[in-house]
Amino acid sequence: MSTAEKSIVADLNLAASGRLKLDWARDHMPVLNRLREKFIAEKPLAGQKVAISLHLEAKTGYLAEVIRDAGAEVVITGSNPLSTQDDIAAALAVSNITVFSKYNPSPEEYKDHLIKTLETKPDLIIDDGGDLVTILHAERPELMENIRGGCEETTTGILRLRALEKSGELKFPMVAVNDAYSKFLFDNRYGTGQSVWDGINRTTNLVVAGKTVVVIGYGWCGRGVAMRAKGLGANVIVTEIDAIKATEAHMDGFTVMPMVEAAKRGDFVVTTTGNKGVVAKEHFEVMKDGAILSNAGHFNVEIDLDSLERMTEKKRTVRKDIEEYTFADGRKVFVLAEGRLVNLSAGDGHPVEIMDMTFALQALCLLHVHEKHADLGNRVLDVPYSIDEQVSRFFLEANDIQIDEISEAQEAYLASWEL
């Protein structure tokens, strides 16, 4: 049976459209292209089955093709109900990759796609948010018999993994790709910063300049969102629970205050924490009329939608991906993309060149787990510095950027305690 026949996608006839998007991504991903050439020649993943759960759009699709060209059998599903692009899913399904994913499935379908992906009994996994790992450990442990290990893409997923590790229940090694230094600097800061505002701007078609933007959380993603909001001319307020990060936000020129005060001022509110209920009932009660709420964390739990529904007298869809909630006192607030990831549910996600670096990290870390799994232990592992640096070196080379090298005398000086 062909991969197209085994796959569950919305419409295979969309494959030609998806192929155009994949080709565009490929042409702007020089780091992955360099790895792909090496993988085609060496087939380092020959005989391995790789299960992927990521936001299924063009950049992810090209990563899947690169892993396929390394010799692996690839099975892929989405990691968010609203981020799968049906034409990309179709294009992959006719390109020797098995796909279980479509846009906006029911919760039952979404879960079934994850389980079907795992029922292929993979050797290696790439996860986003920990969905595959959670199902394997909590519901279907019999499906992990072949698994050597894998990689995790997000902060949310790594929190789950560390909890499993701490309890002694993690059954295979997982590399915390999200925690790679280069991913913090480039993906989380520049990628999230740009893509969140791409999603908000294309969805609302409203000006940002002169408005007040509340950014909840000042981790690497929050930094990027705040920085780009400032660049668009907004007045930026940051809310935090961490004293060090709050101090940094203050030093970066942003106003810092508690969320219950910030809620009174925000025209746009963006969550970037990975935690639940950071916009809650007490904030809705004081929120200014017309406030626009969006989430740049992983799951749709950062905005307490249950409380919002209970407080609402009238709800309607006023524009694609915009729900209007009207309170008893006549105030209205708007939620973008059902409170799901606004940059992927209402946009195309991070810029192609950013994901080129992140997905190169994924590919190289997956190969690292494949080659070293017997020595890694059932732990959450940092990305080896050599891999982190290698990706940046490939990026510099692709962009014809040269840097200096340290001399032997300088190395000797740094290694000595003597002046």
UniProtKB/TrEMBL annotation:
What pathway is it annotated to? Amino-acid biosynthesis; L-homocysteine biosynthesis; L-homocysteine from S-adenosyl-L-homocysteine: step 1/1
SUPFAM superfamilies tied to this protein = Formate/glycerate dehydrogenase catalytic domain-like (SSF52283), NAD(P)-binding Rossmann-fold domains (SSF51735)
Query: Per the record, what are the reactions this protein catalyses?
Result: S-adenosyl-L-homocysteine + H2O = L-homocysteine + adenosine
Query: Residue limits of the S-adenosyl-L-homocysteine hydrolase NAD binding domain?
Result: 188-349
Q: Name one GO cellular component term.
A: cytosol
> Would the keyword NAD be found if you checked this record's keyword annotation?
yes
Q: How many and how are cofactors bound here?
A: Binds 1 NAD(+) per subunit.
Q: Which PANTHER family match?
A: ADENOSYLHOMOCYSTEINASE (PTHR23420)
Q: Which GO terms describe its biological process?
A: L-homocysteine biosynthetic process; one-carbon metabolic process; S-adenosylmethionine cycle
Return any one Pfam family short name: AdoHcyase
- Physiological role: May play a key role in the regulation of the intracellular concentration of adenosylhomocysteine.
Q: InterPro entries from the entry?
A: Adenosylhomocyst_ase-like_sf, Adenosylhomocysteinase-like, Ado_hCys_hydrolase_NAD-bd, NAD(P)-bd_dom_sf, S-Ado-L-homoCys_hydrolase_CS
Residues bound to substrate: 128, 153, 183, 187
What keywords does the record list, in alphabetical order?
Cytoplasm, Hydrolase, NAD, One-carbon metabolism
Report the EC number(s), separated by commas if there are several: 3.13.2.1
> Where, by residue number, does NAD(+) bind?
154-156, 188, 217-224, 240, 275, 296-298, 343, 350
The protein's name in its UniProt record: Adenosylhomocysteinase
This protein's cofactor list reads: NAD(+)
- Spell out the family assignment given in the record's similarity comment: Belongs to the adenosylhomocysteinase family.
Statement: the UniProt record of this protein carries the keyword Acyltransferase:
no
Location in or out of the cell: Cytoplasm
Molecular function (GO) terms listed?
A: adenosylhomocysteinase activity
> Which organism does this record belong to?
Polycladospora coralii
